[in-house]
Specification:
Layout lengths: L1 H14 L13 H28 L5 H32 L3 H12 L34 H6 L13 H11 L7 H7 L4 H24 L7 H4 L2
Helix pairs in contact: 1-3, 2-3
């Protein structure tokens, strides 16, 4: 539908003799690149011209603005048509769903564990003398285990809590638990306890200073020194 609208737009311009001629595009990679560069430069020039005309937009410039806008729209239309043609070519080369399903079945036909309704015997020898498979088999018994381990974490998950680990270590003797007496000796004092000790020490110093001031040196022995 979009392709038809684009073509209708170009046909309308052609009927009014207003369709700009399309530059020839070569087949060689260098020619294609050169055509793209020239088209990009023309598109940039038209965009600048349209912006300049819109800034003043006099009556004399209406025709120039209209022609430049039409030429720019034609460039965009032709670019979109080329993109649509490229997409249609890719879609045409896409294999049909029936072919894809057939290829998937053929690819899985060698996997005996995925053949629905297999008539092969599940007992007896695995291979015949000619090397033909006689019954289904699994290459590894850890297949489901490996499938389940794809999305598991890289690290090992814990098997016990921290409390359980400490209890077990204490039971095994790996961690020594201090007694109450040792705990009281080695216990770290709180800030309040340290402040109380400092207050007691300061109180003792003040009492001693007061005693020294009120009692002269040697006054305690004066009674014994009297004759």
């Amino acid at each position: 539908m979009t392709k038809q609208y684009y073509k209708s737009f170009l046909s309308s311009l052609d009927s009014y003799s207003m369709l700009p001629s399309e530059p020839k595009r070569g087949v060689a990679p260098a020619d294609i690149r050169a055509a793209k560069i020239a088209e990009y430069k023309l598109q940039k020039t038209l965009t600048t011209t349209i912006a300049e005309l819109e800034s003043r937009f006099d009556d004399e410039d209406i025709r120039k603005w209209s022609l430049a806008s039409i030429e720019l729209a034609v460039i965009h239309t032709r670019q979109n048509l080329r993109s649509i043609e490229t997409e249609l070519e890719l879609i045409a080369q896409r294999p049909s769903p029936a072919t894809v399903a057939k290829e998937e079945i053929t690819a899985d036909s060698d996997r005996l564990d995925r053949i629905p309704g297999s008539n092969l015997s599940k007992t007896g020898p695995l291979l015949s003398r000619e090397g033909k498979v006689l019954r289904p088999f699994v290459l590894t018994s850890k297949r489901k285990e490996l499938q389940q381990g794809v999305f598991r974490p890289d690290h090992a998950l814990p098997t016990m809590s921290v409390e359980d680990y400490l209890t077990e270590e204490i039971r095994r003797g790996g961690i020594e638990v201090p007694t109450e007496e040792e705990g009281s000796k080695g216990r770290v004092k709180t800030g309040r306890e340290e402040e109380e000790e400092e207050d007691q020490e300061m109180k003792k110093r003040r009492e001693w200073d007061e005693f020294v001031e009120t009692h002269a040196k040697g006054s305690g022995n004066m009674g014994f020194n009297r004759g």
